[in-house]
Amino acid sequence: GSPAASALPPSASGMAAEDEAELNLLECRVCFERYGLGGQRRPRNLPCGHVLCRGCVEALGGSERRRLECPFCRRACGPAETSDCLPLLQLLELLEVLGPAGGSVPSAFGRSGSGAAGPAPSGLGLRQSLGGWGSLVNPTGVAACRRSGRLAVAHDGKKRIHVFGPSGFCLQRFGERGDAGNDIKYPLDVTVTLDGHVVVTDVGDRSVKAFDFEGRGVLAVQEGFCLPWGLDATPESEIILTDSEAGALYRLTADFKMGKLKKCQRIRSQLTSPRGVAVSHTSGAIVVIEHLKAQGPNNSSTRVKIFSAEMDLIRQMDSFGLNLVFPTKIYSTAVAFDKEDRIIVTDVCSRAVICLGKPEEFPIFNPLISHGLSYPIGLTYMANDSLVVLDGGDHSIKIYSS
């Protein structure tokens, strides 16, 4: 059987592959209850990397709640060593935003809930699809090496980073799941520097870790981060990093070849849960996606903030403001600049990728991809200007070109 099927109860064995993946993603594999944002169903990471609901963690720990054994790999740990499974919580938040219709919300682009649609307005066509359940498990970040055309993907597999070559073959897997210095506990995002280093945010130990393309760990940075989330590399191979819990933006300067951190500078404070971030290779402008919490169900929203290279706020607009301009509520999880310096975002409400224009003309509304996506959570551009979308719904990377 497939990796997905082996985790399913017998009653689910006849389900379609995409349903299997969703079942694995949204249900505790011990009690088969659906995860929730709070209470006993809240998803928790064990140190070994397996995920259970809080109720099962407490039940396995017994009345003394001293030690528990992972039901899958038998590794022992204490309840205090468990932590919230943030990517799953983010997905649950999103599903709450989408409401009872879930992923079947008809989009503003004239697509019915069945998924039928015409061609993308920009003329972008799907050229290649990589990964899929079993190859990638709950992927959270994607980045491209502009020089070599290689793609790095962060996901929840035994080896956390997969590197794909331009032809689509997996060239390398590295970043063992574990507690050693160069292991990766729980990656959230990944970027690739121009000098060929793969840099990852690891929420498991609140660090930023850098590797070469052979998978050798060259640097681990722990500078008092609370929840390092999104990151992007500048043309000078500096790293721009969001700390979602601290509400801050950092710039990391390092000699990756020598494995030395030179400077870790907080360049912006008082942001609201910043997650996705992108740096323009043309102007140096920085775009940040903030996640806003509102009172009442289904009211969570996102805000796009644009800063100049000198960190002056140029423009900002939240979901409500964008909704006044555009025909759909935009809930964005990822952002990128294209080679023309236009801002591109994912929209998980309409399962689309949208161009918001250049910083000076923001916001315009130009849907680039309006069909064929189920949960677009990552974006990057390759050197040949192909657009790469990470689709968490079917655990795949989709590459589009005109």
From TrEMBL:
One biological process term in Gene Ontology: protein polyubiquitination
One function term, GO molecular function aspect: ligase activity
Start and stop residues of the NHL repeats: 123-167, 171-214
Domain RING-type: 28-74
This protein's GO CC annotations: nucleus
Its EC number(s): 2.3.2.27
UniProt catalytic activity: S-ubiquitinyl-[E2 ubiquitin-conjugating enzyme]-L-cysteine + [acceptor protein]-L-lysine = [E2 ubiquitin-conjugating enzyme]-L-cysteine + N(6)-ubiquitinyl-[acceptor protein]-L-lysine
Keywords associated with the record: Ligase, Metal-binding, Repeat, Zinc, Zinc-finger
Pfam families: zf-RING_UBOX
Name of this chain's protein: RING-type E3 ubiquitin transferase
